[in-house]
Amino acid sequence: MNTADPSVQKNEANVRSEPRGGFGIWLEQHLYSFVASLGRAVRKPWATLLTIGVMAVAFALPLGLGLALDNVQRFAGNVQQSRQIDVFLKQDVAVSRAQALADELRGRGDVAKLELVTPEQGLAEFKKLSGLDDAVAALDQNPLPNRLSLVPRGDETALVAALQALPETDQVQHDAGWRKRLDGWIGFGQRLAWVLAALFGLGALLVVGNTVRLDIQSRREEIGVLQLLGASDGFIRRPFIYLGAWYGLAAGALGLALVLGAAAALREPLDALAGSYASRFALSGLDPLRVGAVLLGATVIGWIGAWLVTGHFLRQTRPTET
User: Fold this and answer.
1) Per-residue model confidence (pLDDT) at position 256
2) 239 and 302 share a domain?
3) Domain count, the chain
4) How far is CA 189 from CA 186, 193, 289, in A?
5) What Å distances lie between residue 312 and 10, 209, 213, CA to CA?
6) Can you give the pLDDT at residue 322?
7) Do 66 and 107 sit in the same domain of this protein?
8) In this structure, is residue 322 part of a structural domain?
9) Is residue 17 part of a domain?
């Protein structure tokens, strides 16, 4: 049975033609500001490229320094883990006693790994690394002692002191000084990268703020008319905030491209240098988490810069009630 009443159809049409709710209007305004702000940036290509270029360099410098420090730390053999201690035993210590001593030391809580290198193994290792097979063959006897190679767990200060006190120990080789100095330099470099990131981030914020300020000045009369018509500060501010966010996002992407381009330019000579030392070291790039953090941080900086400038302008030009 057909229940299509003309009055019901008319009411349904009226419902469909009613204005959307507050959230729909709010979303439509944001989408319009989002697209319109991009259009304003595209219509001024040279000014936009200049702003984005300056901000991109500001982002690329501390990012490149941080990436370089990460690779230096990795090239050093992961300094926090490569902490080998070599204990050279006295010549009269037999292999059986060296093996028993190695078993005793493996039971210590501050020893992560231990390997006994016998004189025969040490001589074979020396021949392999030096290439002096004829000179080694001319030796009447093996001059190398038993050697214990340890990797400490935690602070190795007490372990080194205990190893030096052993009656079987002849010499303990523990190159902690250079590692501590390298750790200090890497720590200083990382702190420097954060300080530069803060300073250059502040500079980028000022750049985008000044650019948005110029755009506001060019639309001063339009903003005045909107204020007289009763437009809210949020409605007026919204396109400029999105404009600042676009500047920040584009600058972050360009900064990442600059860093990756510099890494690509350095990769070939660095590979050749590492190959000359029989090393397989290669530059590591930016992980996705850092890329996302850079893009998000750059966008937020652009957003904040535009928000501060537009807020200051609106406070100065807000009509006074009489």
Assistant:
1) 92
2) yes
3) 2
4) 5, 6, 21
5) 50, 11, 10
6) 42
7) no
8) no
9) no
In a domain, 130, yes or no: yes
Q: Which residues contact 123 (CB under 8 A, 6 or more apart)?
A: 136, 142, 144
Structure tokens at 180: 């501590």
pLDDT at 12: 44
Look at residue 137 in the predicted model and tell me its pLDDT.
58
Quickly count: other Cβ atoms within 10 Å of residue 300's Cβ. Answer: 17
Q: Which domain holds residue 136?
A: 85-155
92 CB neighbour count, 10 Å cutoff: 9
Which stretches of the chain score pLDDT less than 70?
1-26, 29-30, 32-33, 36, 75-83, 123, 125-143, 175-179, 227, 231-234, 274-282, 317-322
User: Of 121, 155, 189, which residue sits at a domain end?
Assistant: 155
DSSP per-residue codes, 116-143: EE-HHHHHHHHHHHH--HHHHHT-SS--
Give the N- to C-terminal CA distance of the chain in Å, as an integer.
66
Query: What pTM value is reported for the model?
Result: 0.61
Q: Is 178 exposed, middle or buried (0-12, 13-18, 19+ CB in 10 A)?
A: exposed
For residues 65 and 125, state if they share a domain.
no
Give the pLDDT of residue 231. 66
* Within a domain: 8: no
The answer to whether residues 126 and 197 belong to one domain is no
